[in-house]
Amino acid sequence: MGAYPRYQDSLSHEHYGKSKLPLFVVLSNLERSYPLHYHNFAELSMVIEGTGTEIVGGTPHVFREGTVTFLLPHHIHEIRLSSPKALKYNIMFDLNMLFLSPSDRELANALLKTGLDYPTHYDLNEEQRAHMTSIFQAMRQEYENEGFGKDSVLRSKLLEAFVFLLRIPRSLDSMKPAVARSETRSSMVENIVQYLHVHYQDEITLGGLASRFNTNASYLSRIFKQFAGQTFTEYLHSLRVGRAASLLATTSMSVTEIAIDVGFDQTRTFTRAFKDVKGTTPKMYRARFRNAASEYV
Asked: Which residues belong to any copy of the HTH araC/xylS-type domain (predicted)?
């Protein structure tokens, strides 16, 4: 059995908190390979220098200068360097940012199909690389400063980056992993995980999920834990709590409203699940982030 993927809480990242948006932008200097991991934010990244291999959902691709990768929340991936180090831009954000305006729904729904109808990575040519680099540079500059309309610029630049990527003509080769996947145990769990990312706010049971994917509940329970390192319930709760943590840090919604929003039918159940995942109550978590945010005012 392989190593279990590590969970990374994006809201606890040292660079989070310089914007009112659930987002942060960093220029990362990678000096080592990173084992299997996943996080509660979506990730858009671009390699500035260095080479290596990134394995997304079990499918590897070589990265180099100009490789752009987009990962949905909780998308399991691994980075293996072949050069001594690599430099890359990383934009981490709450996927719900893409659904703030009805006019952006077409784009947001397309991005949810990453890994199926759209590739997880793009190898840009020189002209494309220059344009995308300018977007990342502008976003990092905005994030690190306090100019008028900062959050509006950050969101508009993020949308611009995604529109630019989805307009790039796709080769048949880039989509082979998505359309030629065999229904192995791991690929079935990957499909289920992707379904959970999109529908975790709905009423979901293990039995209902097993029925949807034409298997039985006990078998699904066993292989899900084998692949994800968590039970189905633990994984579902981590998705819901991740969304709840973002809402607690960035909105004035009540705890009850947030519990309902993320898929819990009882505040008591939500509070217990939140404490299991975060080690603190929702109210204490919100207070901590409000105190941290006041340091930037």
From this structure: 190-288
The domain defined by 185-294 folds into Arc Repressor Mutant, subunit A (1.10.10)
Q: Record the pTM.
A: 0.65
Long-range contacts of range 110-115, CB-CB < 8 Å, 24 or more positions apart?
Answer: 110/166, 111/70, 111/72, 111/162, 111/166, 112/72, 112/197, 112/198, 114/70, 114/71, 114/72, 115/56, 115/57, 115/72, 115/75, 115/178, 115/194
Over the stretch 268-290, which tens digit does the pLDDT of each residue have? 999 999 999 889 999 998 888 76
pLDDT band at residue 176, thresholds of 50, 70 and 90?
very low
What's domain 6-177's superfamily in CATH?
Regulatory protein AraC (2.60.120.280)
Residue of 26, 25, 28, 46 lying closest to 123 (CA atoms): 46
Q: pLDDT tens, 231-245?
A: 999 989 988 887 788
The Cα 139–Cα 104 span in angstroms is 19
Q: Where are the domains of the chain?
A: 6-177, 185-294
Looking from the CA of 3 toward its CB, the CA atoms found within 13 Å total 10
